Amino acid sequence: MSHWIIAPVVLPAAMAAFIVLAARFDLTLQRTLSLATTLALMAIAVGLYLLARDDVPRPYLLGSWPAPFGIVLVLDRLTALMLVTTQLLALFVLLYAIAGWDKQGRHFHALFQFQLMGLNGAFLTGDIFNLFVFFEVLLIASYGLFLHGAGVRRLVFGFKYVTVNLIASTLFLFAVGTIYAVTGTLNMADLALKAGQVGAEQAGLLRTGVALLLLVFALKAALAPLHLWLPGTYGVAPPPVAALFAIMTKVGAYAIVRVHGMVFGGEGSPAQGLVEPWVAPAALATLVLGTVGVLAARSLQRLAAFATLASMGTLLLVFALPLAEATAAGLFYLLHSTLAGAGLFLLADLLAERRGSVRDEFVAAPVFPDLELISGGFLLAAVAVVGLPPLSGFLGKVWILEVVRAHPLWPQLWAVILLTSLLTLFAFVRAGSLLFWKPAALAAASDPPAARASSTLPLVATGMLLVLPVLLAAFAHPIARELEATAAQLYERAGYVQAVLGPPSASAARGP
Amino acid sequence: MEALVASGVGVLTAVGVYLCLRGRTFPVVLGLSFLSYAVNVFLFASGRLIVGRPPIIDPAAPGYTDPLPQALVLTAIVISFGMTALVVVLALRAFLEAGSDHVDGREPKGREPR
């Protein structure tokens, strides 16, 4: 039992507490500690990924309590993949925030580390109630980060964001209670085993609990019609925080795959086949609504928020299909959309900082510093988000189109995916020409730029984040092989159950 | 007793949902509290309703009551308590800065500000 498995939870938790207690007046020390922790987490996540590549799920028994009685963390390929993605995103967002955003309020770095702790824990845990607790940890930290450097709009949207998530937490507890009442366990491996043995008279109750749980995860993943909190929240959040939140909606998608795909998706589970008929149509609606929002957005941050929504629609559409190939394609798109979406939020802030009073709104403004660099970055981000060749968005969408062919209604699905991509392209073309070409045309007439040129660190951080979709496209083949192995392992339920609960004879001897 | 607990959970939930749908922040906060009370009682009941038994296997006692839901409720209470405190502070700050206790941060059209 490798103790490194719990490090992604313990390290940021300890660091966050240390930063609050010992370093709260020293911003430089906070930045150093926060960056060092995130770098260490990155190294640990990569190490854990290499460990997980041998296809054996590794349980970590807290307090050495045997599996269904104590809480377990489980490291498998999917968990390790999500850990690496989170740490990658966090590293660049932190680099960006260090250039000045973290000065706008107190405790940015402590909250940031708590956020990482919640995210890592949610990916690692092998217990549904523990998943609830880590959801709460990451949400509490996200409330703090969202309100960072407050303002009236953030307070008003913050109240709604908190309220919606509290109601979701209540539903989560109702679902957990129902599932526990039927099965008598909350351990994911044990649930996967027991879901198949539930009697006919209890099956309806279990289905209800699992459906409630789906509702909660759908809300986190901003699935229509539960998406209404997202555009406002992401549109007014501090941009580095919005960029970090790019992974938060993916936690919902991950939870759907893990809990509904893996735990309750097995043969004989009364909740089998629950996801596709509900999630697939809703995902299509999300995609369409997100695209309409992208077309209607009047500032780059709003556009990025709606683009996130549209990408969640695409992602959940493939995650709803109960096929390993579909999940692999979805994971590729998840990686891509997290990184590209976050890059877009950071770009919006770079623009807003330089364009004076018009900020990132789509109106003509005088030439601003670093126009060439930022417009180049915008081109990269737009190509990635829209899904044009040669970047990873294109490869991801092609892969998705390929796996969607297994669906009986595939021509309609293709039409929706391709049409929304085209409309998104229009929106980005219009945004880019208003933001970058109009100023060039006005250059002769305008005054010298009033906006200040700031440090280069934000530019570098955004640039590095936007290079990742290029790398994802360049190494698409080996990455795709890894993702296929990840998805295949996910649906190998027997292997997971055996790794966590021990060999079947031992669990049979324990009795029902 | 089952009917009493079940209808209690039902009434608390109904009150909570109604209050959460109100337009002012204070009823919404109250609604959230009601919902959390409802879910706490519900979680308790998920271990079946058993009266007068210890939460641990004891040869002297005629049976036992499931201790796990009690641990779950304890966690849920702590979290909902903390979150209620946060949402109260948030509602107050929003009221003080926006000048309105409406959840949209401004009075609805055609209505005099209070």
Q: How big a fraction of the residues of chain B is strand?
A: under 5%
Mean pLDDT of chain A: 90
Low-confidence residue ranges of chain B: none
Outline of chain A: globular
Q: What structural category arises from helix and sheet content of chain B?
A: mainly alpha
Number of domains of chain A: 1
Order of helices and strands of chain B: HHH
- Strand tally of chain B is 0
Please provide the count of β strands of chain A. Answer: 2
Layout: helices, strands, pairs:
The complex is a heterodimer of chains A (about 500) and B (about 110).
Chain A: H1 7-22, H2 27-52, E1 58-61, E2 72-75, H3 77-98, H4 108-124, H5 128-146, H6 152-183, H7 188-195, H8 200-220, H9 229-236, H10 239-245, H11 248-263, H12 275-296, H13 300-320, H14 324-354, H15 371-386, H16 392-404, H17 410-442, H18 457-474, H19 476-490, H20 493-501, H21 504-509
Helix pairs in contact in A: 1-2, 1-4, 2-3, 2-4, 3-4, 3-10, 3-14, 3-18, 4-5, 5-6, 6-8, 6-9, 7-20, 8-11, 9-13, 10-14, 11-13, 12-13, 12-17, 13-14, 14-15, 14-16, 14-18, 14-19, 15-17, 15-18
Chain B: H1 2-20, H2 25-45, H3 68-98
Helix pairs in contact in B: 1-2, 2-3
Write up what this structure looks like:
- The complex is a heterodimer of chains A (512) and B (114).
- With 512 residues, chain A is mostly helical.
- Chain A has one domain (26-504).
- Chain A is built from 21 helices and two strands.
- In chain A, strands 1-2 form a two-stranded antiparallel sheet.
- In chain A, helix 4 (108-124) runs antiparallel to helix 5 (128-146).
- The longest helix of chain A is centred in the last third of the chain and has 33 residues, at 410-442.
- Chain B has one domain (2-98).
- Chain B is mainly α and 114 residues long.
- Helix content of chain B is 62%, strand content 0%.
- Chain B contains three helices and no strands.
- Chain B has helices spanning 2-20, 25-45, 68-98.
- In chain B, helix 1 runs antiparallel to helix 2 and helix 2 (25-45) runs antiparallel to helix 3.
- Classes of the chains: A mainly alpha (512), B mainly alpha (114).
- Chains A and B meet through helix 5 and helix 6 of A and helix 2 and helix 3 of B.
